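Lab notebook: predicted structure, single chain.

Context: the supervisor wants predicted structures on file for every construct in the current expression panel, including those that have not yet been purified. This is the next one on the list. No modifications to the sequence; it matches the entry in the shared construct table.
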Amino acid sequence: MPGPGKAVLITGGRRVGGELALLLAARGWDVAMTYHTSRAAIERTIAGVEERGRAGLAIPADLARPEQAESAVRQTADRFGRLDALVNMASRYRRTPFASLDPRDLDEMIAANLAAPYHVAVAAARAMLDQPGEAGIKGRIVNFGDWATERPYRDYLPYLVAKGGLTTMTLALAAELAPHIPVAMIQPAMIDPPPDLSDDERQAVVDQTPLRRVGTPGDVNQLVVYLLEATSFVTGACFRVDGGRFLGTA
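Prediction complete. Output recorded below exactly as produced.
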């Protein structure tokens, strides 16, 4: 378990990221979180971090803009004295049927799901490389992708293109930043279904999942804890947390 001074920046995270922030705070991490439109939810989570005795910081930012990504990293490092981990969780998921595709759909998905994590990861890595580390490790990066980039489904072409780029970015960053910053990716299927999902839609997901349930925040967040705390010998790895949906055997 990390001692005093370990700091993490989590991008987004109204539901799963919020639980991750509280879990890490309980384990001794100081936590910064960015938000674009979900100020109230993020500020509630940061209040929970502080209730657990850790320092917290809520940062408004459009991370697709390089200067705002750099500012978010700088604010985190200034507040906590260092940055030990980045969890790139912010994402945008929107149905875009092929017949109604507009060029703006790709621009929007690239901005939210590739440009934003790219800019904040580059800024975070530069900050990490400038600080002392333990056993040569100066920081860690975990990106959140999507299991479906390797088994695409219909009606989400721009989203899946952007998330596929994020997978490549993870591998390239792992090569660029070794040996000082391990970089990994988690590729979840449905975790903590959104509140506007109907019972029929939720059941359809369960029916397509070999393990016959949707995921919980703990299913992914315990893996994040492992990558941040328990190993320094994993980089360039992509972990599917999908209940077996990738197998296509449901």
